[in-house]
Model the fold of this input.
Amino acid sequence: MTRKYYSVRKATSSLSLDGLKELFEAVFRQFRERQYFDEAFGFHCVDSGWVPGKIGKEPDVYFLRHLRKRGLWPVDERLDGYSEDDLFGVIELLYDIVSEPLEGRYHSYSDCGMHYDTFNQPSGQAKFRSEINEILSDYKQGYELAENGEIVEKADRGLDALLSARLPISAGEHAKQLMEDAIVLFRRRHASVSDRRNAVRMLADVFEHLRPKLRGAVTSKDENDLFNIANNFAIRHQNDKQKAQYDESLWLSWMFYFYLATLHLVTRKLDTGRVAQPSLEGEPHPPNSPETHEQ
Done:
């Protein structure tokens, strides 16, 4: 990804849909000319004619089957009529099938060109995502194509690193998956208030899952505060004493990022062993401590 130049940094308005389409068309054309879609769409050979790719002989049917809408293929011919949803859907589909060409042979007859037979999809996806995110970030309030292939709302400045950070392995696969699912749900482009409330609840559930390990990483008061936030703001358990009348668009965002940041802090403290020891060496260990289970 290239840096943004002065005129872009100082722009006072975001890209319009037409402007986004124009820039997307340039990116799509560039990747197609560099044969990043040969594996999916196929290619033309002067000897063999059209050689279909892995999506089959009818790309229009493939687009219809996956996007549930007619008239989206060919992309360069139909692009002017795309709605925002059409364009975002096509970008996500292209991300799923793009691949970097690696090895093949040069067909010299009539200067036919390179015919590749070895491709690298993760590499192609990473490069496509990088180029697409340069333009999505300037559309409206800002969007980005996430690693899982979904277009989501771009995080506020300073929070993007938090969203992409990985939990340490010691946190466990369950916690990792639950956190990633919560992030996807919260950032989804058409996420409702209910979706975002559920995302906060999922992060609270990660803490519930890790609760037996929290004793050495946080104080008992801090532990209670973590769960009181979700319980007192009608996120988890419903009762008459909860605070349900609040600006959810603001408070849900605060709760989500608070839980996410605290989750990273706590799991890293646990992972590096920088936690309060339950007892000194040689003294009896409290019930349920790891040492009581070692033989």
Observations:
- The CA atoms of residues 99 and 124 lie 4 Å apart.
- Strands lie at 42-45, 49-52, 100-107, 113-120, 143-145, 151-153.
